[in-house]
Amino acid sequence: MNQSVRQYRVISSTAPQCAAQAGATTRACLSDLLRLMDADAETGPASDSCPVLMRPLRAGTALFHEHGQIDAIHFVSMGSFKIYRTAEDGYEQVLGFARRGEVLGYDAVCLGQHPTAAVALEDARVFAISVRELFALLQRVPALDRLLHLAVSRQLTRAAEIADLMAAVAAEVRLARFLVLQSEQMKACGQSPVRLLLRMGRRDIASHLGVAHETVSRSFSVLADWGWLHVNNREVEILDLAQLKTFARSTRRSIDDIGVRAKASSAPAELLPRSNARELSWVAGRQGFGFDGAVTSGGICIDHPRPGATATKHSHAA
Amino acid sequence: MNQSVRQYRVISSTAPQCAAQAGATTRACLSDLLRLMDADAETGPASDSCPVLMRPLRAGTALFHEHGQIDAIHFVSMGSFKIYRTAEDGYEQVLGFARRGEVLGYDAVCLGQHPTAAVALEDARVFAISVRELFALLQRVPALDRLLHLAVSRQLTRAAEIADLMAAVAAEVRLARFLVLQSEQMKACGQSPVRLLLRMGRRDIASHLGVAHETVSRSFSVLADWGWLHVNNREVEILDLAQLKTFARSTRRSIDDIGVRAKASSAPAELLPRSNARELSWVAGRQGFGFDGAVTSGGICIDHPRPGATATKHSHAA
DNA sequence: CGCTTGCTTGAGAAATGTCAAGTCGTGTGG
DNA sequence: CCACACGACTTGACATTTCTCAAGCAAGCG
């Protein structure tokens, strides 16, 4: 564990270096790549004489820089990456974290240069396919084309995750969602879904969630106080994944309930005022449609606000 | 303009209907699709005997529903769409708005079902390619494959836009960013970049920005008071695009300056305390790297925070 | 003509940001 | 080897923004 912390120190203290310098780029086999991407599709004929490279990266080194010219698209084989963007004034927006199986740099294909930067959070390894030869290769190896389409499609679903993390919920919920996502990704990688070793710092998490890093700290403490998890710096053990997931699903409206239950069961009822509901656009359904006036105040609405539901509206150390 | 409002009423009051019901699906030509996507690549041989359909949609009808099975991927030819996700409790998260040239439903390819829903904000038209035949078609028509890759790559860059909109900035800035994006998209479609007709309601915008709809209203008023724009319900005229863009770029730290200038020039100096800086993860770069102690405080750092840069730290109506 | 809906605005409450202090672990340098 | 400095993380107190609730206005539609 000490080691992991040391790794991070290295990370944050290094100005990302160019990937090319980082390690020996070795020639790899296309079928390895196909296997990596859970492709049960057979590799096809031309699989072994293909321009697929393998790049090892040390922790803290950049795979590519913002505005850097695109030379290849990458597939993470090992390790994890932070994807981010830096504003003119230095504000760093973390867009996500990538793991084994994910595509990196594909968003640069349409631009010719990278709109984002990627830096390894730990020692890592990626497959690289030169964009020069990309389209030709895709034609030669249909399996790769299919694989790439599927991978990118999956990547697109991540966009919604970003929105989920940052939009319209209390800070603790954002953190819970983040942890649940991490947990699921760990599981997908065959590791324990409850013992997380977060490779990124609080600031990175904060940026990703769209809150202040102090708020992240506080949220960790709150979730720990409620008994959902055990936090020791970057080691996080999820003690009650089920409830964490339930909590993560809550919109501001529903926090009260869950929170209260939580509080009752494990904490001495001191925290949690909670009662919000940022944005919503409730599935209207209420209003009569110009047409078939019958449903004018019908019950199509999914779940009503229950104004003043929680009873303990203001537990506030009462 | 009245008309547009009427259209919207239909939208919000309608439970989205299945696209199939909405209009006659007509057979279309693949080369039309290729032309739509700014492909100067020639269409190739098999272009005209291809399973490309054209679907017209009336305002308010859904192109596909959340969790609905994927049958095709779509390319917007005309009109605009709202992409959203609905939580269990009815909370509707708007993920984005799509226009001419954008791909819809591609994120479902890897899942077999749609993780999001899409509904037309106005009368619209899309090209549809059945997923059944998709991969075969991509092999037969390399130009289409290339085009799809490029389009999806562009779509991926949208993920960063979502983050930009929702993360770590004051509400007025989020709105400004949103408007700038809208403006740019209008321009890309060949329309006026300063006269916007927002097809979506305040709630949708609010959800997209991650704030309460009242806050959106107030932010509109603020930007209008500052003289950046003229707002009349869903008609927005941008009066000073340059300054709006500058403002949109600001992080919380820099709002003071711009806000002050704005205030001084057009408003009677009453609003705007402002002084934040949510999350940041400043590119550290300062601390020495364990190895090669030379760079201990070197200048590898990309762009230093300029601590206390803005001078007018707390202009506060002074 | 009244209803509904969307939009705006106000006032008070709550959440989060900001500033600041303190702890701890690590790496540096004496 | 130890002292020191630096950075990450946590926590507290206060300031500020945003949310929530509530009311009012305007417009479209039945």
UniProtKB/TrEMBL annotation, chains A, B:
It holds the Pfam family cNMP_binding. Residues 57-155 form the Cyclic nucleotide-binding domain. The keyword Ribonucleoprotein does not apply. GO terms for molecular function: DNA binding; DNA-binding transcription factor activity. Residues 169-242 form the HTH crp-type domain. GO terms for cellular component: cytosol. Keywords: DNA-binding, Transcription, Transcription regulation. PROSITE patterns: CNMP_BINDING_3, HTH_CRP_2. SMART domains: cNMP, HTH_CRP. The keyword Phosphoprotein does not apply. This is CRP/FNR family transcriptional regulator.
